[in-house]
Amino acid sequence: MKPTTLVVLLFGALTAGIIILVAQSDGTRDQHRAASNDGSPETIILRGASQFDANHAFTRTILKFEELVHEYYDGPVEFEVYLNSELGLEKDYFAYMSQGLSVDYGIVSPAHMSTFSDGAPLIDMPFLFRDIDHWNKVLNGDAFQPIADEVRQKADVMIIGYAGGGTRNLIVNRPVTNMAELKGLNLRVMGAPIQTRIFQAIQASPSVISYSEIYNAIQTGVIDAAENEAAGIQQMKFYEVGPEISLTKHAITVRPLCFSAKTFRRLPEDLQSAIMRAGREAGAHGRHLESTEDAAILAQMEEDGLLRLHQFTQREELMRLAEPVKAAYAREINAEDVFSRVNAVQ
User: Fold this and answer.
1) Structural domain boundaries of the chain?
2) What is the spatial distance between Cα 52 and Cα 187, in angstroms, rounded to a whole number?
3) How many CB atoms lie within 10 A of CB 86?
4) What CA–CA distances, in Å, run from 320 to 41, 167, 194?
5) What is the pTM of this model?
6) Residue 14: which pLDDT band, with cuts at 50, 70 and 90?
7) In a 3-state reduction of DSSP, which class is residue 34?
8) How far apart are CA 302 and CA 245, in angstroms?
9) Would the CA dihedral through 181, 187, 190, 195 be positive or negative?
10) Nearest-5° angle of CA 324, CA 326, CA 331?
11) d(Cα 152, Cα 98) in Å, to the nearest integer?
12) 23-344: which CATH number, 3.30.1490.20, 2.40.30.30, 3.40.190.170, 3.60.40.10?
């Protein structure tokens, strides 16, 4: 083969490859509409993601959202949901939604919004909620709306509902039922500074330790306790080393159901309305799922003899001690208005 002919063939192959890549890229940019050849309306395709399997409350919340959109929207729309971290972790989903790529909707921890909203970490602050009823009323209202507005403005991601509902308690190697027994308790906490401040304020002795090291740390006496919700206690078998569960109920999780605003703006108005309605209702559905199952998991583990539940008799004292720390933190992250709105909910 002549050199000239070889060059021509190689150039042609390279050109064809470029054309294919461009076509694929164009297809990705227009991934939300599937072409129709018969003149009927194009099918809109929306993609969701979950870190968990199909049985997890977060995944079931997402599937409920999809079901409700179908109920409220008459047009052709299809959903593709990727499970078991196939598309990464929650922090990745949030970045994708912000960019308008790969993921259109998913449940994301407030911590992953803190780059865009100083006030977002307030949503996960210990002792923010008086009880499960207060938590539900806050999430059914608009107390967190300033944070949602800031996230939409700066990250281009919409909060369309609030899921969550796991109640966090102490996992201890001995019974802790009052302030005297809590005082000086060597307790593992998450790395966020507010966690250390809060637990110092309630007279425990907090230490930041990796989540994966909790079991061994309690087992070897490095710490006496940790804190988590029922699903985490069950999954990680923390009850084997900390079978005494002190029901401090110091946090009730909130997990926003998010939707990419870039995607949202490309959708028909009636589908936008359906998504907003479905998001609110799916969030409430998810809260009911997780809060109900959280209590059921603890009760079942106690029935099975895996752990023992202890009421903390001075929870009001915990709330009192935590209050000035919560208020100072709200000022520090410019979330005083949100904090006041939450406290005002009766």
Assistant:
1) 23-344
2) 28
3) 10
4) 59, 19, 16
5) 0.81
6) very low
7) strand
8) 10
9) positive
10) 95
11) 9
12) 3.40.190.170
Long-range contacts of 338-342 (CB under 8 A, 24+ apart): 338/119, 338/122, 338/143, 338/144, 338/146, 338/147, 339/122, 341/142, 341/143, 341/144, 341/146, 342/128, 342/129, 342/138, 342/143, 342/144
Residue 200 vs residue 16, higher pLDDT: 200
Rounded to a whole number, what is the largest CA-CA distance in the chain? 91
Distance CA 132, CA 291 (A): 8
Amino acid, single-letter form, for residue 84:
N
243-278 confidence digits (pLDDT tens): 999 999 999 999 999 999 999 999 999 999 999 999
Would you tell me how many other CB atoms lie within 10 Å of the CB of residue 68? 19
> Model confidence over 212-249: pLDDT tens digits?
899 999 999 999 999 999 988 998 999 999 999 999 99
Residue 344 and residue 139: Cα distance in Å, rounded? 13
Residue 154 has pLDDT above 60, yes or no: yes
pLDDT digits (tens, 9 = 90+) for 174-192: 999 999 999 999 999 988 8
Please give the Cα distance from 169 to 294 (Å, whole number): 11
Return d(Cα 300, Cα 307) in angstroms, integer. Answer: 10
Q: Which residue's entry shows tokens 């109640």?
A: 167
The phi and psi torsions of 174 (rounded to 5 degrees) equal -155, 160
Q: What pLDDT, on the 0 to 100 scale, is given for residue 160?
A: 98
Judged against a pLDDT cut of 50, whether residue 99 lies above it is answered with: yes
Q: How many CB atoms lie within 10 A of CB 257?
A: 27
CA–CA distance, 172 with 209 (Å, rounded to integer): 15
Give the C-alpha distances (Å, rounded to integers) separating 5 from 8, 16, 248, 306.
5, 17, 79, 76
**Closest-CA residue to 60 (of 76, 77, 94, 83):** 83
Given pLDDT bands bounded at 50, 70 and 90, which one contains residue 10?
very low
